[in-house]
Amino acid sequence: MPQFDTVIKNGTVFDGQRTPRFNGDIGIKDGYVASIGGKIHSSDAGKVIDATGLNVAPGFIDLHTHYDSQVFWDPWCSISSWHGVTSVAIGNCGFGFAPCKPEDQDRAMLTMSRNEAVPLESMQEGMPWDWETYPEFLDSLDRTPKGVNMLSYMPLNPLMAYVMGLEAAKSRPANEAEMAEMHRLMKEGLEAGGCGWSAQIGENDIQRDYDGTLMITNLMTHDDLLSFARVLREVGRGFIQCIGASQDLTEKLADESGRPVIYNVLGVATDQHGAAMPQYKDTIKWLDDCNARGTRVFAQALTAENNFQFTFEEWNLFDSSPVWREMTLGTVEERAVKMADPERRAAAKAEFDDSEYGGVGIVFSLDQLIVGELHKPELDHYTGWTVTEIAKDRDCHPVDAMLDIALEDDMKALFVTAPRPTDMAAMKEVANSAFALPGVSDGGAHTKFITLGRYPTEFLALLVRDNEVMDLEQAHWRLSAYPALAAGFRDRGTIREGAPADIVIYDLEALEMGETEKAYDYPAGAWRLVRKPEGYRHIMVNGEETFVDGECTGATSGKLLRHGSA
């Protein structure tokens, strides 16, 4: 009988621990790395993978995803898994589906259909809803076939709605009895295997409820928020993921909890010419200062180009603007009526003219917005033009140009943000900063607008291979071991004897992100944007190949990581 189930032979091994690369063989038995050696005889293997000329590395760990619903119809949580991700964290930003009373299920799905733009019809058809409590939700995840490993936060929005009721939670602080019950349920959830809790904070957030109102955690008092931090101190483990919090509040959360905080987002903002603006340097210095004082804060770093494409049929990422938020609520027909209204247009144009960046909802400038696809022959000549160019051609305001094109094309006109060169010097500082974790994929969310799940491929191909922002030893530590350490994955992120065999085998020179395309592969016929990479030869989760040369094997060897391990 073979000593090993699988042997990976002759690969260049990056073990994720910043050990210098070496050529060696890896023996896998019962889902674990059993041996790492110079040479393992092929006769000792049930299966041999020839990795000659290829890199062998630990699977990537994606800390910022929203696969809370998608995992029920897509066990592999693509597109992340296509790009080498073998473990994900869900329940980010305070959003999720547990705890949830049966009568509130539809409302929970409506919420997620706007704040994270998950297709409502897909959730309605694809989710089993065989839980009410958070521990029951974890049990449902546990028995659901998975092609990736999964760690789950306990999100605060559903917890507070469950105990207080949605309207009460949005209108007042919790009373003493409600807070005691929420603390009890949080401890129950942590005991069941939750890794901590998450929240979206701030009063002018872009991610809104389905009716355009702020989420519960955007409205909650800081005292209530800090009380949840103290639950982690009582329990003595777990961590916090927050987005939108001020640096001061983030520090208080870390100090009150005594636990690490994952701060979102560290990114490189650029001016209209593509040059980096200096704010990221201040954030890096703040992170250094926090950790020097013993306040443990990590930052999720946006290391992939954050480009968008959208139609006004579903676009919701102008929601920080009251004018645009109101215009983009409702059915497609209702949106069209509002976008044609002169008074609403006047307000939108006034906001545009007053904007520091000449943008819409302070998201991007219209001279960077390109018409990517049109469906009426009489409009086709505008394909490839920027909104600003169309405005000049029509002698009208840019906002009028954008909305007119949308309406004339029956709201189907596709707008895309123009690609702009990455300020690689600034990105090098961010990627190499001491407490930065690459990611912010938003996997499973905004699937008709972005494809940030490609970030590991972009990190290796664009940043490391093409621009040498760091060596591969450092890159694989950052993509795997470092996020595992920060977020409480106890046995993942490295290739070492005794560790689960989550492994990526790839051809660095062939690594490409793939083209953006539509895939009609969601329940109820919904579509999404995807990018299928090239260069990944084998992706293994717990010792089983889930993808070979980009094709899914059907293996569902992923596990629910209660308390960070399984």
**How many distinct beta strands?**
25
Gyration radius from CA atoms, angstroms: 24 Å
Shape: globular
Q: CATH first level of the largest domain: which class? A: Alpha Beta
Indicate the percent of residues in helices. Answer: 25-40%
Q: In the CATH hierarchy, what is the superfamily of the largest domain?
A: Metal-dependent hydrolases
Strand content: 15-25%
Largest sheet: 9 strands, mixed
Question: N-to-C terminal Cα separation, in Å?
Answer: 27 Å
Uncertain segments are none
Provide the CATH architecture of the largest domain.
Alpha-Beta Barrel
Can you give a write-up of this model?
With 566 residues, the protein is an alpha/beta fold. Helix content is 33%, strand content 20%. Strands 1, 2, 3, 4, 5, 20, 23, 24 and 25 form a 9-stranded mixed beta sheet that branches. A 6-stranded parallel beta sheet has the order 9-10-11-12-13-19, with helices on both faces. Strand 12, helix 10 and strand 13 (297-302) form a beta-alpha-beta unit. Helix 6 (176-192) packs across helix 8 (222-235) and helix 8 packs parallel to helix 9. The two termini are 27 Å apart. The relative contact order is 0.16. The model has no long low-confidence stretch (mean pLDDT 95).
